[in-house]
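Task 17 of the worksheet. Students: predict the tertiary structure of the chain below and write it out as structure tokens. Keep your answer in the requested format; marks are given for formatting as well as content.
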Amino acid sequence: MYYHRQLEKKIIETASEYACITLYGARQTGKSTMIRNLYPDYEYVTLDNSKERILATDDPELFLNSHGMPLIIDEIQKVPDLMETIKIRIDEQKLKSVNESLPVKLMYILTGSNTHEIRENASETLAGRTALIEVTSFSECEKLKKLGDEFVPDIKILQAKQKEFVPKNRHEIFEEIYLGGMPEYWIKRPNRDTFFESYISTYLEKDVSRMINVGRLDDFRKFMRIVALRTSQQLDYTEIGNAVGIDARTSKNWISILEASGIIMILQPYASNLAKRIIKTPKMYFMDTGLCAFLCGWSDSKILEDSAMAGAFFETYVVDEIVKSIRNAGKRIENTLFYYRDRDQKEVDLIYVKDQSLYPIEIKKGIGKDKADKNFQILNQYKMPVEIGLIIDTSDKVFPLNRNAYYCPVSLIGF
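Model answer:
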């Protein structure tokens, strides 16, 4: 059974504008499945195949000649030098198209699981020739087989959308959190321990082993668990390093590996020249709550819901859903999502920036309390418009706390 992805619309639009599309993201997010479903007639080759990989490395011209076009190349990060030959072929085709007054058609679709490496190589080698699109695991809308929309914290938009959705209660939300959004696990429901243990082993062997000493893979596995236990917290490289038995420099380097692989997402604090009392430390979120729950050792959703980490997991889930909705619209979050915390421990969970306006967002795992918006006024220091804020919780409809803040059901994100 195939679940349609929200990104499909963006990919189809992009395919009419570029000679190459590069999809990247964590393992098991459904990149290859989506592309092969969208373009079933395109030839497909994976560089996981040792014979194909060796040929692509030794003789990239012969490799491309041995396959048809358009061509889908999976695991492109395994032969990054292949991009140079692809670049030459795209330029040749562009020149021919100009001479013949014809549009350039889609020639190559590249996919891979090392986010940073692919973005860096594609940006340098294929600049202006490829569109870069990030793929995440299933959003809740995709699980429900609804295409959904980009999340925008505008009250009128949210009120209009709530007429068409069915809210989920707290127990249902924590079941979603526990399951996570990896397509294969969500659809097939294999043995949980076997699936996630295999996922971690594959990730360590195929991705991490290329970036650190193989003898340290056991330390990295322990490191992943320590980081999972700190999802939605500010990053303290020294504290994490001490817990694993590594120095702060190694801890920071390993965090960058998790981020580059799409396992975690780093959220930066909002800052300006006026924010002298802001703490400059970023926060970290696991991008799949199912994997995070497995690493933390939770055996079912009810135990997780009743645990001391329930708030951290709920916040992670909300942030993930917002991030997915933005990325599924083909956009990046770097200039859109931030958080605020100052040295007085006053905090705003999320700041959504749009058109030079700030939208404060608080995240509560239960029904938001009366003073949930107490820190929103702090954002007035930036001398920018501060719009009506949101308290995202498990309520069943959009309704006002006061004139400056509204409750918003978590189920409405990305709907």
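Marker's comment: The chain has a mean pLDDT of 91. The first strand starts at residue 20 and ends at 24.
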